[in-house]
């Protein structure tokens, strides 16, 4: 099903539409906690501010010559291209196509690319996963067993082309108490190559970011439960279902020490290290679950993505889009 779109594509400087209260200082630092971190981030590396003025930046993906990312509260997706002085509007609206009551976050959230390289969006306002191509949005998944999703949040694409996504109710006014809710749990779902939607798990409250290990054998899910923020891992079976849920990294202690943010979006590098946003910024965690270092943005930090040649990590941190040059590359690059 296709829906026509009133959109702006890469033409309007974001500063014309900035909706926050003006410029903000970026107070960032890199925290080295283990010698293995030095093989991932060079001495002297810095967290570089690229653009600002957003209300809540999210969901970056390397696409169409730059990094495309969401401003969830502004119902807008932006693109920043290397060398540009500022970001530009890429899609508006990006999530909710026409004004409707009942939403606290209307825009797109997590973004990715499908197996054909086309842009995928988790659209809070439309309560679906959509594909954007040739000026139109096409629904990829909007229902499970005939019921509307809560507000799809983030997604990951396996090498097979299957799409896995999380569905907490963050986009809805009242969150769990929203009268719009049709599904009574917070699910993780799988879209098979034939378009069939199946439930992966409903055991997690507030599932958020999602990623696969480089060999696709482990599924990671970030949990943004303020009382128990963590990353859980599952073994992925040959049929795409999962088993053996376990806590991969418990971030609650970092939150209780004052780290800003909760476990949210994440990506994996070619060696299997998990780069997960969480309390304090981007937590760099070994495949064995050891915290190696933190890219501390000084802000609640929502998500990250590899770009350029695969060695640059782009990070959405509250008002900002920032980047860090690394010594590794993202899985698949």
What brief labels describe this structure?
single chain, 28 strands, 5-stranded antiparallel β-sheet, disordered N terminus, mainly beta, 333 residues, 1 helix, Neuraminidase
By CATH, the architecture is named 6 Propeller
What is the strand tally?
28
CATH topology: Neuraminidase
Return the string of H and E elements: EEEEEEEEEEEEEEEEEEEEEHEEEEEEE
- Could you report the average pLDDT, rounded to the nearest whole number? 93
- Please give the count of helices: 1
> How many domains make up the 3D coordinates?
1
**What does the overall shape look like?**
globular
CATH class: Mainly Beta
Q: How far is it from the N-terminal to the C-terminal residue, by CA?
A: 32 Å
Poorly predicted regions are 1-19
Task: State the secondary-structure class.
Answer: mainly beta
For the sheet with most strands, the description reads: 5 strands, antiparallel
What can you tell me about this protein's structure?
The chain is 2% helix and 43% strand. The model is unreliable at 1-19 (pLDDT under 50). It has one helix at residues 252-256; strands spanning 2-4, 29-32, 48-51, 57-63, 66-71, 76-80, 88-91, 108-113, 119-123, 128-133, 136-141, 143-144, 147-148, 155-157, 163-167, 187-191, 197-201, 207-212, 218-223, 230-236, 242-250, 266-268, 274-278, 281-285, 291-296, 303-307, 312-317, 320-325. A five-stranded antiparallel sheet has the order 1-11-10-9-8, with no helix packed on it. A hairpin with a 2-residue loop joins β4 and β5. The protein has a single domain, classed as TolB, C-terminal domain (Neuraminidase, 6 Propeller), CATH 2.120.10. It is globular and about 55 Å long. It is an all-beta fold. The two termini are 32 Å apart. The chain contains one helix and 28 strands. 51% of the residues are buried.
């Amino acid at each position: 099903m296709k829906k026509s779109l009133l959109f702006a594509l890469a033409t309007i400087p974001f500063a014309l539409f900035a909706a926050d209260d003006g410029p903000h200082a970026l107070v960032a630092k890199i925290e080295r906690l283990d010698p293995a971190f030095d093989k991932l981030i060079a001495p002297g590396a810095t967290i570089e501010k690229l653009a600002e003025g957003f209300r809540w930046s999210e969901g970056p993906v390397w696409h169409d010559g730059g990094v495309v990312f969401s401003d969830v509260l502004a119902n807008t997706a932006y693109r920043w291209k290397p060398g540009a002085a500022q970001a530009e509007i890429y899609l508006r609206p990006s999530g909710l196509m026409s004004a409707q009551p009942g939403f606290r976050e209307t825009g797109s959230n997590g973004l990715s690319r499908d197996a054909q390289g086309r842009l995928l969006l988790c659209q809070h306002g439309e309560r679906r996963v959509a594909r954007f191509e040739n000026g139109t949005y096409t629904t990829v998944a909007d229902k499970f067993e005939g019921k509307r999703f809560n507000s799809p949040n983030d997604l990951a694409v396996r090498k097979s082309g299957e799409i896995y996504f999380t569905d907490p109710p963050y986009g809805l006014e009242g969150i769990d108490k929203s009268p719009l809710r049709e599904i009574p749990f917070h699910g993780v779902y799988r879209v098979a190559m034939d378009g069939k939607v199946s439930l992966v798990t409903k055991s997690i409250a507030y599932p958020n970011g999602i990623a696969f290990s480089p060999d696709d054998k482990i599924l990671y899910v970030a949990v943004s439960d303020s009382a128990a923020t963590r990353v859980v891992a599952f073994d992925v079976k040959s049929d795409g279902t999962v088993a053996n849920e376990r806590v991969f990294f418990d971030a609650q202690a970092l939150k209780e020490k004052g780290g800003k943010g909760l476990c949210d979006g994440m990506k994996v590098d070619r060696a299997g290290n998990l780069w997960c946003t969480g309390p304090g910024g981007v937590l760099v965690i070994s495949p064995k679950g050891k915290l190696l270092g933190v890219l501390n943005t000084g802000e609640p930090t929502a998500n990250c993505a590899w770009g350029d040649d695969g060695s640059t990590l782009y990070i959405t941190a509250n008002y900002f889009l920032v980047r860090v040059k690394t010594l590794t590359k993202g899985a698949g690059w």
